[in-house]
Structures
1.
Amino acid sequence: MFRYILHKLLLFVPTLFGITICAFAFVRLLPGDPILAMAGEHGVTPERYEILKEQFGYNLPMWQQYLRYVGEVLTGDFGISLSTKRPVMTEFMTLFPATIELSIVAMILAIVIGIPAGVYAAARRGTWPDQLLMGTALVGYSMPIFWWGLLLIIFFSGYLGWTPVSGRIGLQYFFKPITGFLLIDTLIYGKFDAFRSALQHMILPAIALGTIPLAVIARQTRSAMLEVLGEDYIRTARAKGLKTARVIGVHALRNALIPVVTTIGLQVGVLMAGAILTETIFSWPGIGKWMVDSIFKRDYVVVQSGLLLIALIVMVVNLLVDILYAVINPRMRG
Amino acid sequence: MKKIATLLAATAIVSAFAFAASAKTLVYCSEASPANFDPSITTGGNDFDASSRTVYSRLVEFKHGSTEIEPGLAESWTISDDGLTYTFKLRKGVKFHTTSFFTPTRELNADDVIFSFERQWKADNKWHTYMPNITWDYFQGMDMPKYLKSVEKVDDLTVKMTLTEPNAPMIANLGMDFASIVSKEYADKLMEAGTPEKFAGEPVGTGPFQFVDYQLDSVIRYAAFPDYFKGKEKIDDLIFAITPDASARMQKIAAGECDIMPYPNPADIKALKANADLNVMEQAGLNIGYMSYNTTQPPFDKVEVRKALNMAINKKSMIEALFGDAGATPATNLIPPTMWSYNKDVKDDEYNPEEAKKVLAANNVTEIDLWASDRFRPYNPSFARAAELIQQDWAAVGVKATIKTLEWTKYREEGKKKDRAGAFQIGWTGDNGDPDNFFATLFSCSAIGVSNYSSWCNKEFEDLIQKAKITSDMAERTKLYEEAQVVFKREAPAFTMDHSQVYAVTRKNVSGFMMDPLGIHRFDGVDKAE
C-alpha cells in the first residue's frame, strides 16, 4: 500500500510541471493584450504601453517569463493579482473554503441520493421505478446548470419564498471567519440561527451544482450493480438463502462501488467547472467565479496561478480516490 | 443607590438594544466586486461605487443627478485669467473617519490634497509604487502629467494648482473618482508600520460612509460617518451585497433582500415596472454607440461614401431591434442630448437607400469589412446583431459586408490600428460630463492609435476643440463645441448610432436615490421608510 501511494505521489512531480507549462501557455494564447485590457476604453499611448510592458515583465522573452514564474511558484510566491494588487494566494485561500464547502455538500447530496437510486434502479431493472429514476437522471444530466439554477431561484425563492435568493448567509450575520467554512464557523461561535441561515443559503446552490454528478453517479451505480448482480458469486449467495438486502448491500455493492468511486473522483473536475456557473448565479464567493473574472480581465497572474492551484486540488482528490480504490479493491495494492 | 444604579444600567441596556433595533440599513445589490478600495488605482464603476463615492470626497463634486460642478472639500476656488492657476480654499473642520484601525489626530488640510495628487504623479514619491503593478490609469488617461505643473500649499487650508497650459476641463477632472482626497496621516502611519497595502484594503476618507468590513466577493459593510462635513446620513448601515447575475439581482430586489439594484437585464424592464413594490428609474446615459470608418483608407477616405453608407442604414429600426424594451435614443451628434453644448440644430443623415445606392455605385463600393465583438456594452447590447442589421441594410444598396468577429480585448487592439480596414463598431461612456471627454478623447488627432478609431484628423474640427479646451468661458466653449458638431456631421468620420438608456431599480420605500449621468451610484442623501 505504501509503495502504491509513493508511486502515485512521484507522478505528481511531472504532472505539476506539465500543468505549469499548460497554465503559462494557456493565458498567453488567450486573445487580447493584458496591458490594453487594463487600460480599458481609454486606451494607452504607445509610449506608456512600452513603460507598462517593462513594468510587468512582458518585454522579456517567453522562456524567461516562464522561468521567472516557475521560480516564484517553487518559493511559494504565486504572484500579485494585476487587477486587485492582492497576493493570489491570499485571495485563493479566502475564497477556496466557499467552493470546497459547496462542492462537498453538493457531492454528499449526489452520493447520498445517487448511489441508493442507482442500487434501487438496478434491483428493479425494467420496471417503471427503474425507468423513472433513469429518465430523471437523464433529464438532470441534460439541464444546463445556469438555467437550472435560475429556475430553482425563481420557483423556490421568488414564487414560494422558501429559500433566500443568493449569497452564503443572511446579511445580518457578521463575524470574522475561523475556518472559512460557514457551517463550521457558525457552530464554533455558537450562533445556531446563523448556522440555519448558512444551511438555507446552501440548499439551492448545492442542488444546482450536485444535479449532474448525482445523475452520473446514479447511472454508473445502476450499470455497475447490474454487472455485479449477474456474477456467479451473487447467484451462490442467493442460493445459500441470504436475504436480498444482504446480497445487494454487502456482496454486490462493495464490488459495484469500484467504478463508482472512480466516477466520483472524476466528478470533482466537473464540480469545479460547475462551480463557476453556480457561483455566478448564486453570488457564491468562491474560486470558480474568481477565475472567470480574471480571464475576462486578462489577469494573467491569477489565471495561471489559479489554474495551477485548482489542478493541484483535483490531483490530490484523485490521489485520495486512488487510495480509496485500493482500500476497496485489494488487487490494486500490488 | 444600588437600586438606582441597577435601574440606570437596565435602561442603558434596553436603550442600546432599542438603538440597535432601530438602526436603518440599506442594501445595495452591486454587480461586481471592487478590485480594491483605492479609487486612484482602479477603473471600474463598481470600484468607484464601493470606494470613492462612499468613503471619499473630492475638492469639487458633481451635483446629484447632474454633471454640473459644485464645491466639495474646496468651499471655493478661483482660476487666474490666463487659465493656468487654480487656487482652492479648503473647508475648515473636515474630519477623517475614526475606525477600528485608525484614529486621526487632525482634520483635513492642504497636505492631504498635495499627497493625494503627488502619490499618483511623482515617481520618487514612496507611495507611487506602494503596491506592485500599480498603473494610476485614470491620472494618466486624463493627461494629468501633461497638464499639471505643480500642486502647492499656500497655507493649511489653501492649495494652488498650476497647469502647464490652459485646460478648461481640469475642474471637471477634479470631480472624478481618481481625484479623491486621501489621508496623508493614515498613509504615513501605514508606511511606518510597514503595511502600506492596507491603504487599499482598509480605506479612510472624509466621505459620508466609513468602511467597516469586506468579505471578499461577498459583502461590503459601511457605517454612516457621524462627523461627515455635510451632516450624518439618514442611513446608519450601508451594505453592498455583491450579486453578479442580473436575474439574481432582480429576484433579490423583488424579494426585498436588497433595496437598490443597478443594471437590470433589458428583457426584465417590463416585469420590473409591473412590480408594485419597485420603482424603475431611467435616464439617457452619458454614452454614445457609433461605427468608425477608417478615413485614411479607401473607400472611407471620401466623405460622400461615408455619408452614403450612413444614409443606407435604417437607424430607427436598428435601435428598436437592438434595444427592445430597454430603449435608446437614435444619436445625431457625438454627445448625448443631456450634455451641455449639445447642438439640437444639427440634422441627422436621412435614411435614403435610393440616394445611397447611387452614390455607392458611382464610387464602385461593393465590399466592406464590418467589425463586431462578443461583449455586451451599455451603448451596444449586441455588436453581432447590430452588424447583421447593418449588413442587411447595406446589401439592399449593393454593398456586401463581411462581418469580422473578435474577442473584446483583441477587438479593441486591432480596431485602433491605423491600417485597420472596414467599419468598426465601438462606443464610449463619459468620464466627467465635459464635452472634451468625448470630442478630444475620441476624435482628436493625438488620439489616433489610442482611441480615435477613425484615424480622423480634421484641421477645422481640431482647431475648434483645442480652442474649447483652453478657455474657461462656458459660453465660448459651448459655441465652439456646437460648431464642432456641425463639422462632425458634415464630415461623417463615423455613423452615430445611439445613446442608450441606463436603469436602476429601487424598492418603493427608498427615497433620495438619483440616477447619475456619469453612471455613479451614490448613497448620500438616500433614505428608507421602514
2.
Amino acid sequence: MSARVVLSLALALAFALTIAPLAEAGTENPQGQDRPDAAALYNAGTEALARRDLGPAVTFLLAAYRIDPRARDIRTNLGIARARVEESQGSEDHASHPAPPPIALSWTESWYLALAFAMAGALISWLAAMRPRSTRLLITGCVFFAVGILSFGALFLRAHEEAVHPTAVVVAPVLEVGPAPDERPLLPYLLGAGDEVRLGPTRGDLVQVRVSGNAIGWAKRSGLWRVADAPRYTGNSGV
Amino acid sequence: MRAGIVTGSYRWIGVLLASVAMAAFPVAGACGTSPGGKLSIEASLDPSAVAPGGVATLTVQVRSAGLNLPDVTLPPLTVDVQRPNEPPRRTPVTAERAGTSQSFSMMNNAVERSATTVYRILPQSEGTIRIPALRISMGKETAQSSPLTLTVSRTAASQSQAPSGAIGGPAKAPGGKPEVFVQATVDRSRVFWNQQLLLRLRLYSRVDILGDVDWKPPPTTGFWTEGLGPPRRGRVLVHGVPYEVMEIPTALFPTKTGRLTIGAAQVRVRVSRVIQPPDPWSMLAVPEVVPQDLALASDPVTVVVDPLPPGAPLGFQGAVGDYKMALHVDSLTVRAGDPVTVRATIRGTGNIATVRDPGIRARGATRQYVVGSSTKVDRSGDQLQGERETDVAFIADQPGALTVLPVAFAWFDPEGGRYRSQRSDSVRVTVLPGTGEPAQAGRAGQGIAAAAALRRKPGPFGTLSPDPPPASVALLGLSALAYGGALAVAGARRKRLRDPRMARLGVLESLLTQDLSRADSLASRNEPARAAAIAEHALLRGSGIRYDVDLAGVARAERMETLRSRGADEAEVSGVESLLDSLGAIAYAPLETRVQDARQAIRAVRDRLERYRRELAS
C-alpha cells in the first residue's frame, strides 16, 4: 500500500508543480508589475543596504524573498538588513540575528503544495474505492486530502490577513505613531527605519499601524512602504 | 469699686459719673485727694480675683492742678501664702508696667494734667496680694490711694470664668458672652492613616486687638503638621453676637493609628482697654486706651485614626490622597552621549511632601542619574495640594533606541476607601550617532556578515500577492469532486459487500473462475485425479452455497436428506449425487478415458454451478 501512496503523492506533486507555471504562463509579464523580477528587487535592496538606507533595503529584500525564498543571496542580505535595523535601535543581539530559513516556499509554491496533497488524497481514495478490503488505503487518502484542504485554508487565512492588513516597512528615519486627531492624546510611539509593521485602515494621509496584531496608533502614510508595492519604488532612494 | 476726683467747679459732675461708673463696672478701686484739692490719685484693680498664672490689671490715675505732675512708684508686691499646717510666707509677685498715658486740659485759665499708668500683675501661687496705698506729693499737697487686695485663687477665679469652650479671661460681656475666646476644631473625627485632618484654631474677639497675636500651636504628637497659609480674618455671628475672627488653619496627617489627641493651643493677645477721661467736658480729654494682655487656651481634641485596609497594590509606598501622575520626556530624538531627561510629576491633594518618588527606568541606557526632585505645596486652600517632580537623566552611548519603561504609581484614596494606581506608557527615544562619530553608511556592522553581491541575470519572476492562483483553485475543486466520488464509490462497494446474497454470488464466482479453472488446467496436464478432487470440492461447496448449508464432510445419506430438507427436489438431489459418483469414479477409470471423463465431469460441474449462480442472481 505504501508504494501506491508514494506513487500517488509523487504523481500529484508532479502534476501540480508542472501545471503551476503552465497555468500562470499567460499572466507572465517580466516588464510589468504582475510578475515582478526578484533579481531587480534584490539588486535594489542590496544597493539600498550599501547606502544604509535600511527602510527601502528591507522592503525590497522582503519582496524579493517572497518571490524567491530559497535564494541564498536574498536570505543573506535580508538577514543583514534586519540585523542592521536592530543594531540601529540599540539591540545587543543583532550579531546572532537568524537569517530566513533555507527551506521555504513562495506563496505560489505553497498553494500548489497544498493542492498536491489534496489531489493525492483524491487519487488514493479512488484506488481504495476500486479495491475490496482497502480500509487503510482509504484512511490514508482521507488524511492526505485533509492535509491539503487544511493547508489551503491556512494559506487562505494568511492571504486574507495580508489583504486586510498588508505588511509594510518604515522608510522614514523616525516615524511617530500617535493617536488620531480625534482621540485622547498620548505619548507617541517611535518607529525607526526598517521596522516591519502591518497597516490598517486609512484616514486622509494617516494610516493605522499595527504591531503583533495590535493597533498602536496612526502614522503618516508617506513614512511607510507596503512590501507588495515594492516594485513601484525600484530606483527610488526612498528618502 | 471705682472712684474718681474732679477738680474745679465740675466736681459734682465727677461725683455723678463716678456713681454711674461704680454701677456699671464691677471692679475694685480706691482713690484719694489732697486736702487742697489740687492733687488726687486713684487706683483700681481689674479683676479683684484671679487664678494663679492669670493676669490682673492695676490702673493708677494721677491728677494735678497745674503743670507739674508727680510720679507714682509701685512698691514690690508679694503674695501672702497661708496653707493649713504651714506657717504663713510671702512670695514675690511680678508686676510689669504696661504703659502710661497723659492728658492735659485748660479751662478758665486753670490748667490740669493727668496721667494713667497701667500695671500687669502676674501671680503664680494662691494667696492674697495686698497693694499698699500709693502716695504722691507735690509741694504741700499730698494724696494717697486706698490699699487694694487681689485674691489669687482658682476657686475665686472660676466664679467669673467664661462658659465651656470660651476663655474670656477677665473681660466679660454684659450678656455673659465672652469678649475674647479661642476655639480649636477639626473637620472630621475619624480618618485613615496619613489622611489629611484640617485643624482650625480660631480666636474670637469683640474688642480691639493690639499688635500681633502670639500663637503657640497645640501639641500634635503623632501628626505630621503643615500650616495652611497666614492667619485668615473675618466676621461671624456667635449666638447673635458679632465677633472678629482670626483663624489659623493647619493640615494634620496622622503618622500613627488609634486615638490621638491634639493638645490645647496657647494664645497670648493684647487687647485695648478704654479709660474714660476724668473731665468729659474738656475738649482735650479724649478717652484713654490702655493695653491689656490676655492668655487664652483651647480645649484638646481627640480623633480616631484607622489603619489603611489590606490589599495594597504592588508599588504602593504610603501615599494617601487624590493624585495624578504625568510623565514627560524632554526629547524623543537625541544624539549618542546626550542625556534624555524624564520627569515624573505627581500632582494632587494630600501630604505631597512625603510622597515617595516612583521608579523611573529605561532600557538601552548606558548611564542614568537622578537630576533632582522638587516639591511645590499650595497652602492657599483648606486642602494641602501640590506637586512633586522627579527628574532622571538617561544617557545612551550607542546609536539606536532608548526605551523609557512604564512608570507606575499607587496611592490610597481615603474618600473612595480604595487603592488606586496609574501606569504610564513606555516611551521610545531614538538615539542618533554622536556629532563626532564617523558615518557608518556602506560599512557592515560589527558582527554582521558582508552582503552578497548583485545579480547580473534577471529572474525568477513571481507574484507578491498572496492570493491563490486561479488554476490551483480550479484544481482543488476538481480534487474535491474526485475525492467525493471516490468516497461514494467506496461506500457503495462496501454496502454491496455487506449483502449475504451478494456474498454467496461472490463465492460462486470464485469457484467458477478459480477452482474449476484450476481443475481444467490439471486435467489438461494429465492429472485427472487431482482435477476430479478439486471439482468434487467445488461441487459440494457450490451446492452448499446454493442451498445455504455446509455439506463438507457430511455422509451421503445425510447429505441427500439435508438437500431435500433445504428445498432441493429429488431430481436435483439425484443429479448432484450422480455427478459426485462420476467424479469419484474417475480415479478408477481406464487410463485412455480418464482425462476425457474428467473434463466431461468438470464441464458438468461448471454447468451446474453456473445454473446456481443464475438462480441466486435472479
